[in-house]
Amino acid sequence: MRAFEYMRAVDVAQAVATVTADPAASYLAGGTTQIDLMKDGVLGPDRLIDITRLPLRGIAHDVGVLRIGALTTMEELAADSTVIERLPIVRQALLLGASTQLRNIATIGGNLLQRTRCRYFRDPTCACNKREPGSGCSALQGFHRMHAILGTSSQCITTHASDLAVALVTLDAIVHVRGRDGERAIPLTDFYVPPGTTPNVENVLAHGELITAIEVPLLPAGTRSHYLKVRDRVSYEFALTSAAVALVVEDGLIREGRVGLGGVATVPWRARGAEGVLRGAPANVETFRAAAEAALVGATAHRDNAFKVELAKRTVVRALETVKEVES
Ligand SMILES: Cc1cc2nc3c(=O)[nH]c(=O)nc-3n(C[C@H](O)[C@H](O)[C@H](O)COP(=O)(O)OP(=O)(O)OC[C@H]3O[C@@H](n4cnc5c(N)ncnc54)[C@H](O)[C@@H]3O)c2cc1C
Ligand code: SF4
Known about the structure:
This protein is α+β, with helices and mostly antiparallel strands and about 325 residues long. It is built from 12 helices and 12 strands.
């Protein structure tokens, strides 16, 4: 690992000023992504600014909204009583990710900013447009069974790895950030940037902007939600496909439906087309299948990952059926 300078930030303003002023500085939270990538030679910051002592940890409950400090750990959020009662989709997404040890140190801000698991990105000897713009994409001709079928470009086809982000994008969460010029709030649906011609740009944050909190509107009373993750083994594995769904059903009709997809897209994916199919339709398997078809419109598969198109549809149907069963 390259030598670097370590500094512990004493307050938010100092942390933001330090990283903003130095293009070779990065934040360090739990370190479960950052340190791994430094050890592998993928990242090589000159300075790491440790933010773990900043007062950004904890969960505040307001009317209809949960405000989660960026340094809250994944385990802390999963154990929150409001999350357990009102946002099971968030708890499920958290507990189906990583391991207990990792979740005890990994933070919510870091989770949203974790980097891709593409093996070529993580191997500095391979061409990768995300790591080194213009170098090529080894995954296109290489092994891409885990890769994306939605939101891809000719430059990059990797998936976004966060389970939590899929749940939060489905819930219309808002990311609060602090930068040199003050604070701003960004809807999570606008936060991530698909690869296009600049796969190295993954989100709308400017260098030095610090995530301070994530605001999650509670689902209306009566809403049922579920996060279903399909993977090669039942623990400690990233998603092949996942679906985050929420339904309000009244008199057999769907008043509101939300669908998010993970494991299949370059960014945490909100399936608005599927939601349009669900709204006002009978809550039955025919509707769920139609919604799943709509969710995968535009999917583009490559040699090894064509199976994901059908698997993702079945994941959506199964997640919706699970919610419906709880409902009736
Ligand atoms: C073996 C393993 C398995 C995993 N499995 C899963 C899984 O199944 N599902 C899943 O969703 N995740 C999984 N993860 C990812 C894990 O959840 C993330 O690594 C973790 O959440 C990152 O949080 P952190 O606090 O450790 O971030 P760090 O590693 O400290 O930081 C990650 C990045 O975010 C930046 N950063 C951190 N906090 C902030 C902030 N507040 N503002 C601005 N920038 C910030 C850092 O500079 C860095 O670039 C896995 C990780 C490992 C190692
Ligand atoms: S899919 Fe993206 S991350 Fe993977 S090698 Fe290609 S450019 Fe790099």
